[in-house]
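1st attempt posting a full record on here, be nice pls
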Amino acid sequence: MKLDIDTQDWGQSEMEISGDLRLELGEGCPQTVQVQGSLTVDNLENRFHLKGSVKATGDIPCGRCLETFTFVWKAPVEIIILRNIDRGEDQGDTVVLHQSKGLVDLSEAVTECVSLAFPLTTICREDCQGLCQTCGIDRNKQSCECKEEDIDPRWAALDNL
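the predicted structure (as tokens):
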């Protein structure tokens, strides 16, 4: 995932990106993901504007049943590479890289975009029943005879909401 800013054509062009990225999102999140996508590269005098999206694919445990499954999500990517421009320029949420010539490694910037797009919760399928809160059995594979406990009367008022 490198862009040679010395040989990049003026104007707009397309850039295909793909590869493996290492994410450090913590336990319960994919450690390594495969990304694939396309970015539009605008070569404007002293700046490059890269914009597009990538599809990230990684193995992760389900948030309900804890079974590992392959999860796919889309991540918007927007990167600006500045050449010979004051480093004080602020671009909001866009990743800004400063490099005057040569190959620009986009891996870290794409990793940041993929990490930010990762959802807070992931489930293997919409109808996943998860684990029983009492005995811990996977309700997708077996049924159990556990009874749901009565709600603490102090919390009963929340049922009316």
